[in-house]
Amino acid sequence: MGPFSNLFANILKKDKKPLKPLPIESVFKLPSSIPNFPPGNHGATFYEPSSIPEGFFMLGCYSQTNNKPLFGWILAGKSVANETSPSALAMPTDYSLIWSSESHKLKQDGGNGYIWLPTPPEGYKAVGYVVTNSPEKPSVHKIRCVMSDFTDAVEVDNWVWGLDKNINSNNLNLFESRPKDRGINALSVPTGSFVVQNGGAPNDVSMVYCLRNTKNNLLAMPNLSQVKALIQNYSPKVYFHPNEEYFPSSVSWFFQNGALLYEKGKETTPSLIEPNGSNLPQGGSNDDSYWLDLPIDNPAKERVKKGDLEEARAYFHIKPMFGATFTDIALWVFYPFNGPARAKVEIINVSLGKIGEHVGDWEHLTLRVSNYNGELKKVYFSEHSGGQWINSSDIEFENGNKPVAYASLHGHAFYSKPGLVLQGSGGIGIRNDTAKSKEVMDTGVRPVVVAAEYLGSLVAEPPWLNYSRKWGPKISYDINKEIKKVRSVLPRVIRRAFDKFVSGLPNEVLGEDGPTGPKMKNNWSGDEKY
Fold first, then answer.
1. Cα(419)–Cα(372) distance, rounded to whole angstroms?
2. Residue 328: φ, ψ to 5°
3. What residues are paired with 448 via a beta bridge?
4. How many helices (H) and strands (E) does the chain have?
5. Using CB atoms within 10 A of its CB, is residue 316 exposed (0-12), middle (13-18) or buried (19+)?
6. Is 359 helix (H, G, I), strand (E, B) or coil?
7. Three-class SS state of 203
């Protein structure tokens, strides 16, 4: 493990608490009302770390848009002395001026702003910029560069501020940064800094780097009792739409109420499933040899479709992220049935018949917790084939620390705010309606930790988790026939627009197959898709 990780581990061991990222103070502020700037540009403020402890050094500055509460952090570094190897930190030899607000005639708080890129000595790399309100070069003593062995590549994340909001532009744009290599076993560590694109993204992004652990040390990860405490503190509350008909259930409830296991070539003799899934085929790949389905008996089938909210449970997967400096807590919710989709075609709302229906529906939220201080930094809301990370400062909370999520009507995608999200463009798309109702699920009630690979044998994975085939059958209805039914009731003037919309529908909306389980998703061992 490299010097930075050694420092984190030593502090954890000595003080029994994680290292805190440093607080930040404003350097200068850009306004929100700038002529000819792109829509959504609210200006930005630049910060540098304050109250740096003795022996620590600044590694970069932080920036965020002005339309959000301050919710930032930046790492400082300290090199652990080692007689046999050079210091992990070094002063820059010079600076390059990356951008100045002087030529843009901007009115900003704190005078003009200047963004400087440190020039690292040989064998070192810059992991952040220096931002000043003076045209004079900053002192080389102000910041430290990091030995190349302890750095890794970054890529752009969310847009912060800029002249045209275009990643491929030749103008200045600022983005949040994230490690390029992300996942359970990835060792890259974010610093909290930003990246500058000024004359071409590929060139500029490669100027700065993130940190990198040299060994996959898990000392900062929570133990099992701490995991349970985090779940109780941060487990979200999920609100369902007032018109929702298809609720979640526990996996065991689904199995005990008549769910069936089918095998290819033996479709006439499906098998009942043990409550823990112990008779499900284990391992292998999603090769269509097996699939699950609802009970054959129609009354039982309709009852199971509706789920059982009182019996529903959230299934938690605990995993290290960013070189074990963060803990991702992914919580999965199972629905026996995904209901039919609805569309908005300009001013007309239409049901899409059976389109969108499928057996077995897995949805998830992910809590990203800092291992430096135990704070909930972000929540990921899965939305069909993608999703989005939302900072904790922008999330609705109840009962103190409980994030609030809204499950969309029938489709069960998660959103951070109630209302309509239209999956489409030009006033045409799939409706994702969310609203608060009396039907709510507290995911911290009867939580089940199903996986935490880093804890070894302390967490036993249930057999159903390693079932790699589909949790529902292929559809048994004619998609084209359903589309024609919907099209026939639309006014002729909007049918062409409807046809274009239908041609772009993703497979998960068309409901061609039941989904695979949580462990088969790419984000099980990687980062979330967004």
1. 35
2. -95, 125
3. 315
4. 8, 35
5. buried
6. strand
7. helix
- Using a pLDDT cut of 70, give the percent of the chain over it: 86
Name the helix (H) or strand (E) containing 348.
strand 348-351
Asked if 443 and 407 touch (Cβ cutoff 8 Å), the reply is: no
Tokens describing residue 152: 């890794």
- Per DSSP, the residues of 101-150 read SGGGT---BTS--EEEEEEPPTTEE--S-EEESSSSPPPTTS--EEEGGG
Residue range 455-459: mean pLDDT, rounded: 96
N-to-C CA span, the chain: 30
Determine the pLDDT at residue 522. 92
Task: Tell me which residue has tokens 């008779």.
Answer: 279
Asked whether the predicted pLDDT for residue 15 surpasses 50, the reply is no
pLDDT higher than 50, residue 20: no
Q: Is the pLDDT of residue 494 over 50?
A: yes
Q: How far apart are CA 394 and CA 70, in angstroms?
A: 10
Beta-carbon contacts of 13 under 8 Å, excluding residues fewer than 6 positions away, are: 219
In 3D space, the residue among 513, 509, 444 whose CA is nearest the CA of residue 475 turns out to be 513
Number of residues written out for the chain: 530
State the pLDDT confidence band at 40, using cuts at 50, 70 and 90: low
What's the rounded Cα separation, in Å, for the pair 262 and 269? 8
Q: Where are the alpha helices (DSSP H) in 244-391?
A: 251-256, 298-305
Confirm if 130 and 143 have CB atoms less than 8 A apart. yes
DSSP 425: E
Q: 135: which 2 tokens?
A: 């045209």
Task: Quote the tokens at residue 348.
Answer: 């007309």
Burial class (CB in 10 A: 0-12, 13-18, 19+), 166: middle
Contacts 24+ apart (CB under 8 A), 109-113: 109/26, 109/28, 109/29, 109/31, 110/26, 110/27, 110/28, 110/29, 111/28, 112/28, 113/27, 113/28, 113/30, 113/46
Longest alpha-carbon distance in the chain: 81
Six-digit token string for 63: 């920036």
What confidence tier does 293 reach under pLDDT thresholds 50, 70, 90? very high
Q: What is the pLDDT of residues 98-116, one digit of tens each?
A: 988 887 666 555 578 899 9
Which residues lie below 8 Å from residue 377, measured CB to CB, with a gap of 6+? 326, 368, 369, 370, 391, 392
Average pLDDT over residues 202-220: 79
Residues 6 or more apart whose CB falls under 8 angstroms from that of 30 comprise 43, 44, 45, 66, 101, 106, 108, 113, 161
Alpha-carbon dihedral sign for residues 275, 278, 280, 284: positive
Round to whole Å and give the CA distance between 198 and 212. Answer: 25
Please state, in angstroms and rounded to a whole number, the distance separating the CA atoms of residues 46 and 23. Answer: 13
Least confident of 76-80, 90-94, 152-156, 252-256: 76-80
